[in-house]
Amino acid sequence: MEGIKASAVANIDGMIPEPVEPTRPTVAPVDYRLAREATLQAWREGDLDLGQICDAQPELRRNAEFCGTISSRDCPVCEAERLVEVTYVFGPRLPKHGRCVTTDKEMRRLEEKPSTYRGYVVEVCNGCGWNHLARSALF
Question: What's the half-sphere exposure (Cβ side, CA atoms, 13 Å) at 94?
């Protein structure tokens, strides 16, 4: 009888999968194009004035000028400047106010760390001050 119990336990142990290392959460990125278009439509219809949509803070404008990536899209408000994308990352061992990521190498280094980070891409016009959250992602 004890032999049966021992073999049953051995069979059960073989059925239990080996522990798997935890993986990062798989969360789809969020795109804010619909909110962007709603804001622009409200401005075009006169529900928002220029001061309400072209209100980029000085630090955001500096980061756009010195750390951002120039996009291929023109500003939807002034149509005179190219939009610049600025990426901010928040997470463990980063400053409370986040970190402005300036290079692909820096982003890859963060992606390789075992911690989970949240990244935000903001589009900015250095001409008129238009700014809007373009997308965010958990990585």
Answer: 18
Per-residue tens of pLDDT for the chain, all 139 residues: 455 444 444 445 555 555 555 555 567 899 999 999 999 999 999 999 999 999 999 999 999 999 999 999 999 999 999 999 999 999 998 888 889 998 888 888 888 888 889 999 999 999 999 999 999 998 8
Distances 98 to 39, 90, 92, 119, 127 between C-alpha atoms, Å:
26, 5, 10, 9, 25
How long a stretch of residues is the chain?
139
Among all chains, which residue has been given the structure tokens 């951002």?
68
Instruction: Indicate the Cα dihedral angle 28, 135, 68, 94, nearest 10°.
Output: -60
Amino acid residing at 137: A
d(CA 128, CA 78): 6
- Angstrom distance (rounded) from CA 81 to CA 129: 10
The verdict on pTM exceeding 0.85 is no
SS3 72: strand
